[in-house]
Structures are given as structure tokens and as C-alpha cells.
Amino acid sequence: MTTKQYESYYVPAQSHWPIVGAVALFLIAVGAGQYVSTLASEQSSWGGWVLLAGIALIIYMVFGWFGNVINESMAGKYSAQMDGSFKQGMSWFIFSEVMFFAAFFGALFYARVFAVPWLDGAGNNAMTGAVLWPEFTATWPLIKTPDGTETTGMGWYGLPLINTILLLTSSVTAHFAHVALEQNKRPQLKAWLGLTIVLGVIFLSLQVLEYAHGYSDEMKLYLDSGIYGNTFYMLTGFHGLHVTLGTIMLFVVFLRVLKGHFTPENHFAFQAASWYWHFVDVVWVGLFIFVYII
Amino acid sequence: MTTETISHDSHDDAHDHHDHKMTGIKRWLFTTNHKDIGSMYLWFSFIMLLTGGAMAMVIRAELFQPGLQIISPDFFNQMTTVHGLIMVFGAIMPAFTGLANWMIPMMIGAPDMALPRLNNWSFWILPFAFTILLSSFFMAGGAPNFGWTFYAPLSTTYSNGSTAFFVFAVHIMGISSIMGAINIVVTIMNMRAPGMTYMKMPLFVWTFFITAYLLVAVMPVLAGVVTMVLTDTYFGTSFFDAAGGGDPVMFQHIFWFFGHPEVYIMILPAFGIVSTTIPAFSRKKLFGYSSMVYATASIAFLSFIVWAHHMFTTGMPLFGELFFMYCTMLIAVPTGVKVFNWVATMWRGAITFETPMLFSIAFVILFTIGGFSGLMLALTPVDFQYHDTYFVVAHFHYVLVTGALFSIYAGVYYWLPKWTGYMFDETLSKAHFWCSLISVNVLFFPMHFLGLAGMPRRIPDYALQFADFNKWVSIGGFAFGLSQLIFLAVVIKCIRGGKQAEAKPWDGAEGLEWTVASPAPYHTFEKPPKVD
Asked: How far is CA A53 from the centre of its chain?
């Protein structure tokens, strides 16, 4: 700590972006709340429009806010200490995301190890199986729930395996892009980064195909097909959302690379996007093992 | 800790002038200043305290005598639910974040929080979240009525129409807490003045550091579990429904994995505050500084492996009951270290009893009572008797009101001269203390007896034999609620004027915050001080 440089730390002037973001989040919550509440009732809802307005406003905020940050950074107002704040902030943000996924992985493990076997009478729950759910047999994937809903388990070969290879490769290409940036090899940087984004987009497209396959009459694997469908779609769905966000981040970074931003020493935004990308990759490995294979 | 150079309001540093503050509402909406944001957090939390307190008074009015007389059982449930949510997420947590915002940069010699714009956002999304939560009272079906713990299936199959709004409001509160906590962690890790090593940080800073880690780790889990409640309610999933292979008890596991660390999120900062005030008014150094740091860290670690002590009656396997019982009792060890250290700090000190010290001493004694009732609840076999009774209510109100809230009062009185530049009215503040101290015990102490005698919690009506104690509890409740208005009067009076406060109004106080003028200049430590 003592060896660190203590230039004066840049404290930004008043900014209107946070309050814009707060209003945007408010609109998203109210809109989504209203939309979800009226899903079942068939009546027309204004919620969807408010939700869209909120999303539009938050995109506007992100552009404005990050635009300010980029301009300040390009104007050389930031010190090494500031860079440290950004990096640590991003790492802890990713850690919080890990814990968000942990909640859903926890649900998956609990259901597989405890809840489903108990419903079939495991442990000291013989009466639960015999009295409440006599027809039920514990299996995983849970292809027949206690109330009789039937579905099919998603295999790990085919699309999921291809997707795993794609995403793992994209983590490597993202790393090559980083190395190219640090060695100031701009053409290679653009190529590797572009390739990473392309791999991300292909991953997402294949994921959409997989969902279409799941929702087909052949598989009948729906979000509400019992705990297997629940955990499958919630885990892969939230992962897909994060991949989407990561792809957008990489794309913005790509545009900035084209504009000539970033130096071998100073490229926090690039690093943040690439950390995020490695994070979604690691989550996918967990998903592939625990949701698909085992 | 001594300081060599102090350059608080030096105008000689050349970097561009961001310190002309705007006036009017824009100042508060657009601010990036940790002191402004800290003040807003504190005012917001006080408004929420009064709102949640008003709901508590509705509850106590209904329980003043047996029978249903004022409100319907459903509205009673809405009151208990929203009272809990507001007090946890709206009053206690933002008050601590407000203190952290105000004091941490000044204590570590930083010019501001590390990410000032994010800081503004973390605050301003909170009022919006509570607007959504409170507006649910006016929706069809009313506000959430399933308890602040929103156990499934009460919050899923049997919930009323506003659950989606509840879920999204909690999401926003979670985002606010996570962003605020990240800011605190980064500020402490990255912005300490040269020479301020980790083991030289004030204990206040340490406790917030550890609390912020707990927040970053568990608030996302809360977001996950409310999301599951949302999909179970509206999208046909069955995470908490046995018919689809899920389990309602799984809800409790995930919720309390968040919920138990959350309990420490609301008490560790309190430890930090009284570890600051007690040495100041005892005129002695804090006894056992490093053991305090390790004790705080141990409590934080243990908080992750005790969650199922909230669930002893759900029919867990015997091994689970024993494991969680022993781990829970283990927490008494580091907590005991802390209480011992506070008492040892006071031992043979030159103690004076200014208002912050009064609240701190009351904290030590009354928090210990709450701790002991917690120890009783930790014993699995006896918890079968206490579970879901008023004994539990008594326990957590002792740790949260006479624990967390009293420590916040101690902190506010301690730093109020630094914030406003004036000394507060000593007589009035002591009136606030004594009224609060007496009424809070009339309010919560008889609840122990009610619980031991078998009165269940969250019930709008009760058997006749509980009538006398409930009457006293209600009287204590109203008195305690009204006493808090004295506090409001003290604060407003102190903002408007009074005896000019010196830079260091408490002669035993230590720390960088006392090296700057009172009131603290808008910007402090733009050049970091040197700490030896």
C-alpha cells in the first residue's frame, strides 16, 4: 500500500446520470411488476410499455454515464489508483454475480440430493412416499413429477457439447486479444476480439435452437415441467442473459478498439469485459457438468 | 494514531474545481459527495424508521387487548410484513450505509468514496424501491402479507396480487446494497492514506469492511430466492412445490442462507460504532484491538454455516440439527470476546456519561440480553418450545432495537457535532436516552414471558391470560415510538444552531475525522494525510 502513488484522486463533479438510472430502474420495476401481475388475466396491460420505456432509459443512461467515464479517461484525468478502484469494483461485482448463480445451483443440488429422493420415501420420509405420492419414483432428470407431468431430459451431446467447445474457445480467443493488446498488435487484437464476439453470437443462436428443440412436442421440456425444467431453464436462461450482456460489452469494446482507444498499459474497459467473459465461461462449465452431464 | 500533515480545506491544489456545489434540489439529486449522500441515507432511514414505527404502533394498538377491534387479520399481516421489511431494508441498513458514507472516507483519509457516481445511484434507487413497496397497500389485495421472511407457499400459492411488485422492490433494494457494499470495499482497499495499514484502521472501518463482504456475498442469494418466488407465483415453476418435485423447505434454506448473514450485516457495524465511542468516553485505548478484528471476522465466517437454526422445527435430519446447533453456539465465543473487550475498555477508565456513551453502555448490556436469549434459541430441543413465539420476537428486537438502533443513536450523537458544527442539546438528548431506555424495556422485556408462556407471534388476537403483559408491551411501544420524536427535535435543533463545536469536541476521541474542522468542510483530504 505504501509504495502506491498518491496522485490526487479524481472525484467527478455532480452528475445527472445516476438519477436518470434510478428513474429507469423504477420504470423497469413498475412496468415489469404490472406486466407480470396481469399475465394470467388476459386484460391488456400498460406494464409492458413502461418496462420498455425503462429499458430504453437505462440504455440511454449507460451511454451517457459510460460516455462521461470514457471521456474523463481519455482526457487523462484518471490515476493508477482510479484504475485500481475500477478493477476492484468489477471483481466484486463479478463475485456478486457468482453468488447469484450459486442460489440457483443450490436449488438444483438441494432438489436432486434431498427433495426428489425424499418425495419417493428416502431417509426417514417413508410415509411421504407411501401416503402422499405412492405413484412417484425418484429419477434425475425428473421426467415424471409427483403430480404426473411428463417431460424429457436434455442430453449433453449435440448442441450443448458444441456450445461448450464454442464458449471455451471464445475464452481463449479473448485471452489472445488481451495479449495482442498488451503487445500493441492492433490488427491481431481486432481479429481475436471480433472472433470472440462471433463465437458468442453463434453460442447464443445455438442456445435459441436448443430451447426451440426443448419446447417442441417431441421433448415437451417447458419452464413449468417440474423441478428439472425449472432449474434447466432458469440456470441456462440466466446464463444466456449474461452471455448476451457479455457480448454487448465485448462489442462496445470492439467499437472502441476501432476508434483507437486503449493502450497496452491502460485498458480497464477491455479487461472488465474480458473478465466478465471468462466468468460466463466458467459458469457454463459448471452448467454443462451439473445440468447436462451428471 | 497521529497525523503529520492535515490539508483538509487547502485551496492550493491545482486540479480542476469540482467543489462548487449546486443549490436547491439539484445538489441532492446530482451529488457525488459522500457527505451529501451520507446525510441523505441517514434522513431516508429516519423517515423509514418512523414509517415502520407507525406500523408497529398499529400492531400494538390491535394487540392492546384480546379480540379483534381495530384492523382485520389480513391487514394485521400486512402490517407485520411491511414493518419488518421497512425496518430491515429501509431503516437499519441505510442508516449504517449513511454512517459508512459519512465517516469511512474521513477516517481513512480519502477524498471521497472510490466510485462517487455509483454511490449516488446506490442511494437514489432506494426511495424508488420503497415507493413501490408502500404503494402496494393501494393495490387490489393489498400489501405483502406473508411476513418479511416471505416463506413459500405463503408468498407463492397463497399470495395476494402485489407479489410481483414486492419481488421487484426487493431486487432494487438488493442492487442498492450490493453497489453500496462494493463501494465501501473498494474505498477501504484502495483509498487509505499512506501509512494506514489494515491493522491501523479504526475498528469502525474494519466492521464495515467485513459487513460489506457479507452484503456482496448474500444479497445476490436473496435476489435469486425472490426470483424463484416470482417464477413460482407467475410462471408455473415449482421450486417450492412438492407436486413438481420442489420443496417449500428449500425456500427456507436459500432464504436463511441470505438471512443469517443479514442478521450480522445489521449488527457488525454496531460493534464498530460502540468500539469507537466506548474508548472515547472511557479515555482509554480500545482493549484488544486485534482480537476485536479477528472476532468480527470469525462471526462473519460462522454466519455462513448457521442458517438452519431458524429451521429446527422443519424436520431436518438429526445430524443437521446438531451441526447447526453447535455452530450457532460457537458464535457466542467471538461475541463474548467483544463484550469482554468493551467492559475491559471501560475498566478503570475515566468515564464520562455523555449521550453517545449512555447509548453505548445501554447497547452493551441490552445487546448482551439479546445475545443470551439467542443462545437459548440456539439449543435445538428448547427451540421446539420457543419457535414462532413472542420469545423470538423479544430476542430479535433486543438485538435490533437496543442493539443496532441504539448503536446508530450512539454514532449519530457522537458525530453530530462534526456534521453540523454545533453541539446538540445535552438535556434534550439525555431525555431521549432515558425515555427510550425505559420504554424499550417495558416494550420488549415482557415479550420474553409471553413467548415462554406460549403466545405465538404474528397473531392479531390472543388468549385472555396474555392480556396484562400485552397491555404493558403496547404502552411501552407507544412510549418508545413517541420518544423518537425527541431525537428528531434534537437533530433539527442541532442543525439550526447551538454552541459552536470544536474540531474535537470529545476529549477522548481519536481518529482522522477529528483533525478536520467542525462542521467538516465539503471536501476533506483532497491530499491524503500521512499516518504514522
From this structure: 22
Architecture of the A1-78 domain? Orthogonal Bundle (1.10)
Burial B252-290 (b: 16+ CB within 10 A, else e): bbbbbbbbbbbbbbbbbbbbbbbbbbbbbbbebebbbbe
**Cβ–Cβ of B32/A26 closer than 8 Å?**
no
| Three-state secondary-structure class, residue B500 | strand
Q: Alpha-carbon torsion B243, B249, B251, B253, what sign? A: negative
pLDDT of residue B7: 39
Substitution target from B10, B22, B37, B128 for chain A, most A beta carbons within 10 A: B128
State phi, psi for A150 to the nearest 5 degrees: -110, 150
- Name the grid cell of A247: 457480448
Q: Could you confirm whether domain A83-293 is CATH 3.30.2280.10?
A: no
Statement: the pTM of the whole predicted model exceeds 0.90? yes
- Nearest residue of A to residue B168 by CA position? A29
Answer whether the bond into residue A141 is a cis peptide, omega within 30°.
yes
**CA B320 to mean position of chain CA atoms:** 29
- pLDDT averaged over every residue in chain B: 94
Interface with A, mutate which of B237, B257, B305, B524 (most A CBs under 10 A): B237
* Backbone angle region of A104, left / alpha / beta, with phi > 0 → left and psi within -120 to 50 → alpha: alpha
Q: Do B250 and A110 touch (CB under 8 A)?
A: yes
For the record, the C-alpha cell of A7 comes out as: 496522485
Q: State the smallest CA–CA distance between residue A26 and chain B in angstroms.
A: 6
CB A95 within 8 A of CB B213: no
Nearest to B238 among A32, A37, A227 (CB): A227
Q: Which residues of chain A form CATH 1.10.287.70?
A: 1-78
Which residues of chain B are within 8 Å of residue A147 when distances are taken between CB atoms? 243-244
Q: For the segment A151-200, what is each residue's pLDDT rounded down to a tens digit?
A: 999 999 889 999 999 999 999 999 999 999 999 999 999 999 999 999 99
pLDDT at position A45, please?
Answer: 81
Backbone angles phi, psi at B422, to 5 degrees: -125, 155
**Taking a C-beta distance cutoff of 8 angstroms, is the pair B44, B126 a contact?**
yes
Q: b/e for B103-125, b at 16 or more Cβ within 10 A?
A: bbbbbbbbbbbbbbbbbbbbbbb
- A190 to chain B nearest CA, in Å? 30
ipTM score of complex: 0.95
**H/E/C letters for each residue in B392-414?**
HHHHHHHHHHHHHHHHHHHHHHH
